[in-house]
Each structure stands twice: as structure tokens, then as C-alpha cells.
Known about the structure:
By secondary structure, the chain is mostly helical. The chain has one domain: Helix Hairpins. Helix content is 74%, strand content 0%. The chain is built from three helices and no strands. Helix 1 packs antiparallel against helix 3. The longest helix is centred in the last third of the chain and has 43 residues. The radius of gyration is 27 Å and the shape is rod-shaped. The two termini are 44 Å apart.
Amino acid sequence: MKFDMGSTTLSQLGKSTVGSTDDLGTLIKWLIQAAEPLEGKFNGAGKAAFDRFKAHADGITSDLNSSLGAILGGQSGMDTAFGSGDLEMQDNSHHTMGAANFDAARFGAR
């Protein structure tokens, strides 16, 4: 298995996630509006569940947005970690190359 990720993958993913937060809240509101014609058409547990969902829609939206915010924070942290790891690997490679004796590796007559 090969894991290959570009240097901008996580930052691009973060930008997509930010837009998804707004989209999610809008979709929940549209769902409630779309279900309005069904109100009063059913009884019992279905009605209770619908009424509960409708009453808690703002809380549900807030909870989902908080969860997406946490995901975004995780993506940002991973982006920072990958970026600093990349720079650290570059620094270590330059340091090791500076200490290497490349002349000793030549195979041939001098």
C-alpha cells in the first residue's frame, strides 16, 4: 500500500469543509420546509418523531456544525503536522548530506 499526498491536499480539504458547514445548515432547513406538507398527515410515533425533529432542528444544526468544526480543526492540525514534518525531513536531509563524504563513494581511478 502506498500513501501519497500532495502538500496542499489537507488545506484544500479544509476549504471544502468550511463551505460544507453552511450547506449542512441550509439543507436541514430545507428538509423541514419540505416536510411541512406532511404535518398533520400522520399520527402516533411518526408524528412525535417529526415534531421532536422540528423542535430540535436548530440544536441539531448547531451540533452538526460543531462536529464539522472539530473535523476542520483536526484537518488543520494534520496540515500543520505534515507541513512541519516535511520541513524537518528536508532539514535533516540537508544536514546529513552536508556531513557525508561523497568523495569516498567514487569508484574509479583518481
